[in-house]
Amino acid sequence: MEAVLYVSHGSRVAAARLEAARFVEQCKAAVDIPIQELCFIELAEPDIITGVDRCVAQGATRIIVIPLLLLSAGHAKRDIPAALELAKQRHPAVEIVCGSPFGVHDAMIDIIIDRISECAPSLDGESMILLIGRGSSDPDTKRDITAIARRLQEKTHVPHVSVCFLAAIGPTLDEGLEQANASPCRRVFVVPYLLFTGVLMKTIERKLRGFPTSDKQWHLCPYLGYHPRLVTLIRQQVASLALAKKGA
Known about the structure:
GO terms for molecular function: sirohydrochlorin ferrochelatase activity. The protein is α/β, with parallel strands linked by helices.
């Protein structure tokens, strides 16, 4: 019997955990697989190994693991595989296959545009976008955010899309804000490339409140959140991994 195990990042913030749980309920309704569970990488329970245990206890013999992560970095490359390896040792008869983070995908560009559209005014020839990533020492993080920024500029036709990061790599958030302030664009749309609320979103809000005023118009857009377009991506990934078994 097949199961789906959704792996969220995890957070100490209760609202962030609730967002993940609500989103997974939407995914469960869209995915026709009998066993579906949610677990967390860190800072929340159940952990990944417990999530696997729960699937097996319900009769799962094959588990499709879906990381609810924006980009492929340390969690996707090390933490999830390490936990799944331990789970395989506990359940050697159970097949466990793992999907990929959302990554650089046109749907992600559309989600950013949707979030920007929630602000007023609309993007125009005097606008720029400042895309703020979480940040990671993994070089793929900067590469992927840069690729997303490039596609975003192509799709919106704004004069400039710049990126900055909240941790580990540069340019930093302070540097990103300074560069945006020095640009000739009149309007700056600040887009937090974050999946859920929490400490990092509060950091961005605090920085913007304390940023010196200028003649620019600053618009803080909502974080990406668990957008409905992500349900479609997950449904497609689950279907692909399920078909891979049938074609084996």
